[in-house]
Write a structure and sequence with these properties.
The chain has 13 helices and 13 strands. The chain has 494 residues and is an alpha+beta fold. It has three domains: 2-190, PAS domain (Beta-Lactamase), CATH 3.30.450.20; 250-334; 339-482, Histidine kinase-like ATPase, C-terminal domain (Heat Shock Protein 90, 2-Layer Sandwich), CATH 3.30.565.10. Strands 1, 2, 3, 4, 5 and 6 form a six-stranded antiparallel beta sheet that branches. A five-stranded mixed beta sheet has the order 8-10-11-13-12. Residues 485-494 have low confidence and may be disordered.
């Protein structure tokens, strides 16, 4: 009981582990996909939008720089913003117009030393070095070399929003004398963040839905597996009569069918074993009783000096011992599990050899045995098939009346080789036909009832069959075998 409980516990732990593994198998890949794909899409969208914003701002800066007179810009000196000089006002007006038209936050112009000449939207006085330029040194180096550029990273303004700066060179007589900087808001970042949050919420919802699906799937798999587990445990506890219920799921249904086949085979073997034990006990009891009786009489005769009668009793005891030995040999032959030693076997030689082994017994009974076998080659275990045929021919000889004839024939038809053993005896009564292949069923006083079951077992092991057709005066055992190759891959007779 403790072992059964332990097995049950382990099975249930395994089913729980299966549910957990299915849950992990569903959720982990999805979680990784959502995280990786969401992050990748977000970063790609942000990079594209940042690049597009930088390109737009640098284009605005270039258009503005093309309108700025470099020579006049350099004439603006510290204090001009206080005095409101004409040159300074013209530059402010130009940059203010660009700012209003483009909707940017700030537009300012600097010389090559980074000193502010005009600042619209930033409020820096003329002549002060713009601190923002320190973070964009590499970009400014490209601008002062004559290229357009944009800051590589977003920065946070005093209002807490994200911004980006585009730069373009200001030229005078072909030389770069300064730069125009345009700061624009990264307004896309707010919707992009909202999109990211929406994606995260949708991902969480998808994960929750998948978790529910995984749990339902796990339960759907666990229920039939638990039923299979219960059936396996019942079989393990020795309950071989309760059928394994079928399952609708294809794969689990195959397992259920195979388990049911196994249960049926075990039940059949168990029933067969019980019959064999009961038969052996019944068959052994009689000769043992006879041996005990005759040995007692033998002892009395020896004590009385009746040596002639003692010899007869010894002969009877020997016959009973021989009968016991035959019971044991038949029992072992029927119960033994051994692999088939397949090899090419000539069918005519097989039939002739089996009949030759019974020639003396047939002659003593006055029964003729005729053999007519068509040529064919069987892939079979010759010794086992010989034993099966000997049992069939012996049964026919013993059933035939004196002067009778047993006909053994073989012919190949449709990939099968059919062997018929026919006798002219009284036939097998209808009630006995259904039991004639049962172990230990016999109508003879000294029969073990294992010859025909053993013959059928050998036939089935070779992928063939053995059946009976009987009417009064004509009884035929029909043995069919595969022709020219293995019909079934079996390790032993069943």
């Amino acid at each position: 009981m403790a072992d059964a409980a332990g097995h049950t516990s382990r099975w249930r732990d395994a089913l729980g582990s299966l549910s957990a593994r299915l849950l992990v198998a569903f959720l982990v890949p999805t979680l990784l996909f959502v995280a990786v794909a969401g992050s990748a899409v977000y970063q790609l969208a942000r990079a594209i939008l940042e690049e597009e914003l930088g390109s737009s701002l640098s284009a605005i800066a270039a258009a503005t720089a093309s309108q700025v007179n470099g020579e006049r810009m350099l004439t603006v000196e510290p204090g001009d913003d206080v005095d409101g000089t004409r040159t300074w006002r013209n530059l402010v007006r130009l940059l203010e117009g660009v700012r209003e038209a483009s909707g940017v936050r700030r537009v300012y112009a600097v010389d090559t030393q980074g000193r502010v000449r005009v600042d619209v939207g930033g409020g820096l006085p003329v002549g002060v070095e713009a601190p923002e330029l320190a973070r964009d040194r590499l970009e400014l180096a490209r601008v002062f070399a004559g290229e357009r550029a944009a800051s590589q990273v977003l920065f946070t303004g005093t209002d807490g929003r994200l911004y980006k700066t585009g730069y373009a060179p200001v030229r005078h007589e072909g030389l770069v004398v300064g730069a125009v900087a345009v700061e624009g808001s990264a307004a896309f970042f707010g919707p992009l963040q909202r999109l990211s949050r929406t994606f995260a919420i949708m991902g969480a919802g998808a994960l929750a839905a998948l978790a529910v699906i995984a749990l339902l799937t796990a339960r759907g798999l666990a229920r039939p597996l638990r039923r299979l587990m219960d059936s396996a445990l019942r079989i393990g506890r020795g309950d071989l009569t309760t059928p394994v219920p079928p399952e609708p799921t294809r794969e689990i249904g195959v397992l259920a069918r195979e388990l049911e086949v196994m249960r049926g085979a075990l039940e059949s073997r168990d029933r067969q074993l019980k019959m064999m034990l009961a038969g052996v006990a019944h068959e052994v009891r009689n000769p043992i009783g006879g041996i005990a009786l005759f040995s007692g009489i033998l002892q009395e005769d020896l004590q009385a000096g009746a040596h002639a009668e003692a010899g007869e009793h010894v002969a009877r005891i020997q016959r009973e011992v021989a009968y016991l030995q035959r019971i044991v040999e038949d029992f072992l032959a029927f119960a033994r599990e051994q692999p088939l030693a397949r090899a090419p076997v000539e069918a005519p030689a097989l039939l002739s050899g089996a009949c030759e082994l019974l020639s003396m017994e047939a002659a003593s009974r006055g029964v003729a045995v005729d053999v007519e076998a068509a040529p064919a080659v069987l892939e079979a275990d010759g010794s086992l098939l010989t034993a099966a045929l000997v049992n069939l021919v012996k049964n026919a000889v013993q059933a035939s009346p004196p002067g009778g004839r047993v006909r053994v024939s073989g012919e190949a038809t449709e990939g099968r080789y059919t062997i018929q053993v026919r006798d002219t005896g009284p036939g097998v009564p209808e009630p006995e036909r259904e039991r004639i292949f049962e172990p230990f069923f016999t109508t003879r006083e000294k029969g073990t009832g294992l010859g025909l079951p053993l013959a059928r077992k050998i036939a089935l092991a070779h992928g063939g069959d053995l059946r009976l057709a009987s009417v009064p005066g004509d009884t035929t055992f029909i043995l069919t075998l595969p022709l020219g190759g293995r019909a079934a891959d079996v390790s032993s007779p069943r």
